[in-house]
């Protein structure tokens, strides 16, 4: 092996082969049986528990934790899956520090919440390891529903519809289902191909056909779907990315963070994946953190996140920021890129400090240069294209209540729809709720 | 520094912490380790006649756990010593000679015939032991042979055997009582009537710890079958404390020395037994759970507390709480309290609300913002909310001053003591004069 973290340019194999496995191992080791009991014992079984309210899918957390504590993690898993069929993935990727665990009374009391996420993983892993699919389908209704997008929103919707006895066809533009579970989530949060395993497990309900490589707008139109199916659910996520709008954005070495992560997630051999020596990530969300951390884990010498506002405004939680810092990522706050430097290939980023004036951000005029052979843009995603007839709100498909769009017979949920945070768990909740609404509409 | 030394029936020990007759005191090796660790005395594992008994060769113990596998209750189906009498006697003698300042009591269980006791008593006396404890307690194995709790459940037998022993030895006689009876005062009175110098209690409580739901066998399971065992450890402390108190305040046995046993796990437990009238305490499960070193915490804790309270010696504590143990009918019905929630320490878990709303008196309100407040008009002061609140001292009971209105009853709190015996609702009330 000839490359090291100090090799200039964007090259593969910067680390010893065994380092990749260690770097991309499970972020949190799963709890063993005893650890789970100890963690479960800390739950107070609160009345009308605030953690439930804080979970977008409203899992009955005190109940499932009590089921773990009494030695029935399988029953706990059923409680979880009843509300959230992707409870396994959510247990791994939810920013619990801003959701259930933030609301846990023990977080408020002592700064140490009950480990809800890890307990959820313990329960769901136990049931899934047994290869059991806990639900069966209701009698066939004779109705069929098209779901566009096999991400968390689409899958949750499809599963709930199938449970109610409808026939579901999911279309996804990508070669694999799973959406960002498969292509976006950081590798160390979902090791051992969990996204794929979960998808297979979910499909065991039956009644769902997944057609990959089929894109709405290319292989079909909304009208054709409406004609063929009794209802349509749109869960296409955000397929587009925002432009940087800084000089030199077209230089070689500047790429989208989501594309970079997607390549990483699909790479069979991480040591074959090229990464820069000096990486600059632009943005402040989970994507920025994940891109930065994974660049570092791939062996980049320096990784810097440029975020235009202050720490408190950063969409990535403090926990995520600390995770990045612990892996050696430097976060520069209150700075924005003004130019990408280099002659053909990128050699650096010129940034300018910012200050907030009311709602708008102003450059202070003071600039600095960061060396970079790779620049990853993580400045937000956008709808990839909007089928005709749908109204938008803030760049997303406008929906009311349980995901109803302005067009009758068409529902939407997840990242592509208005409202809610862009999180896996929110997508699941929206997909599930839309399914219930569709079910009501179809069977009256 | 408080003086922890005790003089119980003339038997001196450097501290009140004795090891109860059980596996920790089964042989010289263990007892020497215990004395090195600082225990004040031991009651040697119960001796019987030869041929010695045999134990099961599978598991003897079953357990009940709290959070983090903290052992709360232990159950055993062990019998008395399963070593030859001669070996035990030789070891007792050696240990007593090497550790003259520690209490050495020998627990005994032989058949209910005077001749059997006459045979064994001189042998024990010869070891130089300080006293004997008559094991009328074990609820399993031995009771089927007419010994242990089979004797302890019949006051007449207790009195008879105690008398035989007093007649046949100069050693002080302690009668160890079984809790497997309905009223502990009867066996205690019998022991006293037989001339016993003291009682010790409690021995273990008949129990089945759990049932294996795969094999449908009680635990501990011996080849698919289980039998009841004896329950001990922290879980039995409240039962033991009550029985001790019953004896301490019974006019017929008041003043009879007591060695308190049952769930003593910390210095605090020991202090409570002492306060209820025990001159020493005996420990088994705590030592079996944590090893002999626990006695260090017991000694330092008791000593610190005594210093803080200004108690110079053990004698100053013994029995201090006995006058405050009374019968329900004498409790002051004019003592009125209300639950109070300290909003600053409340963590809004809602347990008080669920408990009161579902199972008590609907006396706690819950607002949209999860503020929990006591409704005085409904609060009967049952204390359930205090007991279920996970935050210590978050909910407290506040006494209503005489003269204030109890909004639940609509009555002004009376200043004077009044109890059930004079209450108008009591059909048998004696008119207050
Ligand atoms: C890098 C990254 C990291 C993230 N990390 C986390 C995290 O740790 N925790 C968390 O909770 N959330 C995280 N998120 C957010 C989370 O992944 C999304 O909120 C969630 O996946 C949204 O689900 P969805 O079903 O709406 O969309 P997606 O998961 O995006 O799925 C949409 C699917 O639709 C398909 N599709 C798109 N257009 C078409 C079309 N025209 N025709 C057919 N199919 C189409 C896509 O191929 C895709 O499979 C992360 C996001 C990113 C980008
Ligand atoms: C395994 C075991 C064996 C016991 N054997 C005897 C015994 O031989 N003689 C006896 O008087 N008590 C025996 N006991 C009862 C203890 O001396 C003691 O009374 C009881 O355990 C309660 O105390 P604790 O809660 O501190 O354990 C035994 C207890 C256990 C756990
Ligand atoms: S808030 Fe915390 S303690 Fe209360 S039920 Fe939820 S997890 Fe348990
Ligand atoms: S405690 Fe010791 S004797 Fe008992 S089962 Fe375990 S190893 Fe064997
Ligand atoms: S039980 Fe205690 S902490 Fe919980 S809501 Fe009630 S008063 Fe507050």
Q: Could you explain the architecture of this structure?
A:
Chain B: Heterotetramer of 2 PreA and 2 PreT subunits. Chain B: Its EC number is 1.3.1.1. Chain B: Keywords: Iron, Iron-sulfur, Metal-binding, Oxidoreductase. The complex is a heterodimer of chains A (about 450) and B (about 425). Chain A folds into 3 domains: about 35-130, Alpha-helical ferredoxin (Fumarate Reductase Iron-sulfur Protein, Chain B, domain 2); about 145-240 and about 385-444, FAD/NAD(P)-binding domain; about 240-375, 3-Layer(bba) Sandwich (FAD/NAD(P)-binding domain), CATH 3.50.50.60. Chain A contains 17 helices and 19 strands. Chain A has helices at about 15-25, 35-40, 50-55, 60-70, 75-85, 85-95, 100-105, 105-110, 115-130, 150-165, 180-185, 195-205, 220-230, 255-265, 285-295, 320-325, 425-444; strands spanning about 10, 145-150, 165-170, 210, 230-235, 240, 255, 275, 280-285, 300-305, 330, 335-345, 345-355, 360-370, 375-380, 380, 390-395, 395, 410. Chain A has a 5-stranded parallel β-sheet with strand order 4-3-2-5-19, with helices on both faces. Chain B is α/β, with parallel strands linked by helices. Chain B folds into 2 domains: about 5-325, Aldolase class I (TIM Barrel, Alpha-Beta Barrel); about 330-420, Alpha-Beta Plaits. Chain B is built from 12 helices and 22 strands. The model of chain B has no long low-confidence stretch (mean pLDDT about 95). The chains are: A alpha/beta (about 450), B alpha/beta (about 425). The interface between A and B is medium-sized, with 16 and 14 residues. The site of one iron/sulfur cluster has 15 residues of chain A, from helix 3, helix 4 and helix 8.
